[in-house]
Design goal:
The protein has helices at 61-78, 139-147, 205-208, 214-226, 254-266, 296-309; strands at residues 7-13, 16-21, 25-31, 35-41, 47-54, 84-87, 103-108, 112-119, 125-133, 158-163, 166-171, 175-181, 185-192, 195-202, 229-239, 242-251, 273-281, 286-294. It is α+β, with helices and mostly antiparallel strands. The strands form four sheets. The protein has a seven-stranded antiparallel beta sheet with strand order 3-4-5-9-8-7-6, sandwiched between helices. The protein has a seven-stranded antiparallel beta sheet with strand order 12-13-14-18-17-16-15, with helices on both faces. A two-stranded antiparallel ribbon has the order 1-2. A hairpin with a 2-residue loop joins strand 10 and strand 11. 35% of the residues are buried. The structure holds zinc ion (ZN) (2 copies).
Length: 313
């Protein structure tokens, strides 16, 4: 059963990507780009766990592995089950990360797991990744397939963010400041030097659009984020084959105006410009919006690039 599952759904979180079987879902997460954890749950009590932490010097992977083993031993003792732990389990023998052989391990209690541990010299992350579940023969093969797809840092200038079938790309140096992950609403707020980004997705479009047009509804939904700006709205162009709504304008108010006058003279750069795009995707029954804040050209380019990268259907 497990062998027939294809690794086709991408999870992207803080610059880490991994392909998992389609029906697996992102379930638990904590931390940030520097150190964190997430779990992706599959069917039959199987789960992928990814843990990372940025290390300044040369980390002792041995110590990390020993600590991991100790925690596992402790919890199995509490549960009164035997534990077996071994390195280099056979199913993970072909596993390579950045062209190298990582430390691999396998364990067995009333459950079993296969995992790998490595340090990336480029992003300085120590990665501990495992696939664990109930005893089943194919678990090692499944772990190999999934672990082979783990990337600990983005390959290009952009990071892929992807959870709950919502995927977009953003400059990799932007960090996640705030987020909401609910079934009917997803929001990501990212921050970079001099730029801010909000990417949102709403579900059940057929219901929310019963009494409103996509353009009218988006104006209302985005108003809390746009109200500080003297913005204009245009219905022009399309995105992913859907008509789109464009919002753009400068921060309003006397103080902003004063700041702008000063800045126009000294920097000729404005950080107080908002550029937004919103659209309705009937195919997925969802609404999407991307807002970027920063200097005008940069905000426009960031907004257009991110909106283009959203896979809406
Ligand atoms: Zn890396
Ligand atoms: Zn679409």
């Amino acid at each position: 059963m497990l062998n027939t599952e294809r690794c086709s759904s991408i999870i992207g979180w803080h610059g880490i990507t991994v392909s998992v079987p389609e029906e697996w879902s992102f379930s638990v997460y904590s931390g940030d780009a520097k150190a964190g954890y997430f779990r992706v749950d599959g069917a039959d009590d199987v789960a992928l766990e990814v843990k990372w932490s940025e290390e300044k010097g040369i980390p002792s992977l041995r110590r990390v592995l020993n600590d991991f083993q100790k925690r596992l031993r402790k919890s199995s003792r509490t549960a009164h089950v035997e534990m077996e732990f071994r390195e280099k389990p056979r199913p993970l023998a072909p596993l390579r990360v950045h062209g190298h052989i990582p430390i691999t391990f396998g364990w067995r209690t009333d459950r079993q797991g296969y995992g790998a541990l490595w340090h990336c010299k480029e992003c300085r992350r120590v990665m501990l990744v495992q696939v664990a579940g109930r005893h089943q023969q194919e678990l090692g093969q499944l772990a190999l397939r999934i672990l082979s797809t783990v990337r600990d840092h983005p390959a290009g200038p952009e990071a892929i963010w992807s959870v709950y079938d919502f995927t977009f790309r953003a400059p990799k140096e932007m960090t996640l400041e705030k987020h909401q992950l609910k079934s009917g609403y997803l929001a990501f707020e990212l921050k970079g030097r001099g730029v801010g980004l909000v990417v949102e997705r709403w579900g059940l479009a057929n219901i929310v659009l019963k009494r409103d047009t996509p353009s009218g509804w988006l104006s209302g939904a985005l108003y809390p984020r746009l109200k500080a700006y003297a913005y204009r709205k245009e219905e022009k162009g399309d995105l992913h084959g859907h008509p789109c709504v464009r919002f753009s304008g400068r921060r309003s108010g006397v103080k902003a105006l004063a700041n702008r006058l000063v800045r126009t003279v000294s920097f000729r750069q404005h950080r107080d410009y908002v550029s937004g795009l919103g659209w309705h995707c009937p195919e997925s029954n969802r609404l999407f919006a991307v807002l970027a804040v920063g200097a005008m050209e940069r905000a426009d380019a960031l907004c257009a690039g991110v909106a283009e990268s959203v896979a809406c259907h």
